[in-house]
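Subject: sequence -> structure tokens, single chain

Hey, anyone have a minute? Need the predicted structure for the following. Not urgent.
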Amino acid sequence: MRRQGVHVPFVAFVLAGGLGTRLRSVVSDRPKPMALVAGVPFLELLIDSLASKGVRDIVLLTGYQADMIEEHFRNRYADLRVRFSHEHEPLGTGGPVKLAEPYAGDPTLLVNGDTFFDVDLDALYGFHKEKQATVTLSLLRVDDVSRYGVVHIDAQGRIRAFFEKDQGPGGPGLINGGVSLLSLEFIRGLPAGRSFSMEKEIFPALCTSGTMCGLAQPGAFFDIGTPESYHDFEAFVRSQRL
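Reply:
Had a minute. Here:
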């Protein structure tokens, strides 16, 4: 996890409201983002990683067992601003972003609270500005996209197709790594007052506009959504401490 700029000029929204149903066999007493990894909540490791890259303003988008998350992080950091936006009913992956609009900047970093992707935020921000994009996704090349869905980009880095998992063919390709930059205009245009999926409803439609871009990055990537991937990330964290 490399240290980047002293301060990146955006707020980070972290999706932390998931139920973690597939992880219940190993994490049953807490929300998925609070799963202990080598004795430390995953969400804390994620925030520490963002802080090491210069992020100083973080909004946790909470839902399931929000009290546990808010209690842990309310006064956790002296050098970070950590705030909370709580959904009182499930709003999917898109609704919480719209709910947190009053905290948004231009752009806003959106991070999945169950995914660790060691991205270069400076490079992502520079690419986003260069392309004058509405949305810029951090992409990762994998051997089999079937678990994640697939993203197709053109030579200029414009996303031309976005398929959620089980919608496209398997095999090697680029996937959405769960770290994105969203323009304030984009957030303001999201539907209000209802649950919706960013990946199924919003991103596929945005492909036709030519304003959604993707930057492939080579950093370490872990999705802790299954017991197997959770244990893989724990082994990675322990190896980094040796």
